[in-house]
Amino acid sequence: MDQVHRNIIISNHCFLLTEVNWSALVPRLIKNGVFSKNSMAQYDNHDSYDCKVNILFDMPGLGPEAFDKFILSLRESSQIRVINKLLGIREPSPPPRAHTVPIYPENISRPVPIDLRTEKLRINVIPSENFMDDFGQMLNPYTMRSRSRGAVLIINNKTFAVDRPRKGAQIDQENLEELFRQMGGYNVTIKENCTSQQMQNDIMNFAKSNVLKTVDVMFLIIMSHGSAYVNESQVKCVDEEFVRTSWIESQFLGDACPNMQNKPKIIVYQICRGSDLDNGVRKVETDGLGIDIPTRKHSDMLICHSTSQGNKQITPAVLDENVIPTRKHSDMLICHSTSQGYKAHRDTELGSWYIQYLCETFMQYAHTHHIETMLHLVDDHLSILQSDNVDKTMQTPNFYNMGFRLCFLNPGIYEENKQLCRYED
Fold first, then answer.
1. Could you tell me the pTM of the whole model?
2. What is the rounded distance in angstroms from the CA atom of residue 46 to the CA atom of residue 94?
3. What does each C-alpha distance from 176 to 70, 125, 196, 346, 389 come to in angstroms?
4. How many whole angstroms from its chain centre is CA 149?
5. Taking burial as the number of CB atoms within 10 A of a residue's CB, which of 64, 238, 282, 300 is the most buried?
6. How crowded is residue 3: how many other Cβ atoms within 10 Å of its Cβ?
7. Residue 210 CA: distances (Å) to CA of 19, 215, 257, 261
8. Where along the chain do its domains lie?
9. Do 3-87 and 150-299+321-422 have matching folds?
10. Can you tell me whether residue 296 is helix, strand or coil?
11. The domain at 3-87 falls in which architecture?
């Protein structure tokens, strides 16, 4: 397979894993000679996640006609939408969503399928068929099988003493509440319109809650106005006072929150992080189509630090073999709706861009993908949105990993007496 076709397969792994009808495709792959019966026999269950990953991993190493035969097999199994995606053939666009415009012209293939909806998002979680932490990943996924799966604290500041109300924030809250309800096993607590003291008390009580002893995962979601503070961000409370994000995160470090040691802790901020606007930059001209498409200023960057903020590197000591240490800064995933110093967008009728697509992505892909992959998909969605105001602003979400491993949420199922059970059973 030539390099162009290899790149198409590799860059569309996530899409192919979830959107292809593999039961219909596999017989066609054998019929058309992409794989022989003997080679296909090495894959135990064609509907399993492992099998799909292995087929996609092996396909780029096949012969020069493999890609054309793969497309033929898709066509014969009536998977035209998948073919269009791989070949860059653009499907007809839905009507644009209120207050948002897609930035890609009609004759340009967009980077991901996206529903520029005109109505409120309807939550419909796809349940898992099996436990995704069960296939021996080298990166040691978190175990996510308890019936009491997780604890969630949602803080939503909507009205303020001086600042403008956050119209559309109630929709975000309802979407999140319904998302966790349908995923099953989550204890959700909602706090609205908190003063700075109330917010700090609620967060400290949550971090010390006995509920955290029995759950597999913890979510803290904070939605409010916000601003920059030196090298970090801060959350505005309804009394116009602020709580710094560094203080919030410190409440869940290993020594401050022992009930969540070695378990995943996800903190999500839907706040502005400054007053700057990302008006986009023009794409550098190439020898391809001569169309002027804006792209975000803050994009395609991966920043790697050797240690956590505020810590220094030291020479490691010899550890006591009878003591198993654990790090203070570990098992945390910090998610921001926008880049440091920049504003975040909120549709007054449909909710914030970030929370909308976070909910949509989790409900569609949590049954097969781990959280960080889903956050990349959220960014793919946001990368083609541009506000319809005069500034034509864009938005780049961020997340950073503090010793956070693979985390599959396994929606809709739990384990009891070593048996897979469903929440509706």
1. 0.69
2. 34
3. 39, 12, 23, 15, 27
4. 18
5. 238
6. 8
7. 40, 10, 11, 13
8. 3-87, 150-299+321-422
9. no
10. coil
11. Orthogonal Bundle (1.10)
**Dist. CA 362–CA 177, nearest whole Å:** 13
- Tokens matching residue 33: 């000679």
The helix (run of H) or strand (run of E) holding residue 235 is strand 232-236
CA dihedral 402, 404, 410, 412 (to 10 degrees): -30
Task: Find the length of the chain.
Answer: 425
Please identify every residue annotated as catalytic.
Answer: 225, 272
- 150 vs 216: CA distance, rounded Å: 6
C-beta atoms surrounding 187 within 10 Å:
16
Task: Report residue 23 as tokens.
Answer: 């039961």
Residue 304 half-sphere exposure, CB side, CA atoms within 13 Å?
2
- Fill in the amino acid letter for 153: L
Contact 180, 126 (CB under 8 A): no
pLDDT digits 0-9 by tens, 306-363 = 666 666 555 555 555 555 566 677 899 999 999 999 999 999 899 999 999 999 999 9
Q: Identify the CATH class of 150-299+321-422.
A: alpha beta
The DSSP output letter for 386 is E
Give the model's pLDDT for residue 294.
56
Q: How far is 231 from 343, CA to CA, in rounded Å?
A: 16
**What single DSSP character describes residue 35?**
S
Q: Structure tokens of 204?
A: 């400290």
> If phi over 0 gives left and psi between -120 and 50 gives alpha, with beta otherwise, what is residue 14?
alpha
Per-position b or e across 77-112, b if 16+ CB within 10 A of its CB: bebeebeebbeeeeeeeeeebebbebbbeeeeebee
Positive or negative: CA dihedral 251, 255, 257, 260: positive
Neighbours of 292 (CB within 10 A): 8
Contact (CB, 8 A) for 350 and 121? yes
Which residues in 332-362 are b (16+ Cβ under 10 Å) and which e?
A: bbbbbbbbeebbbbbbeebbbbbbbbbbbbb
Q: 3-class DSSP state for residue 401?
A: strand
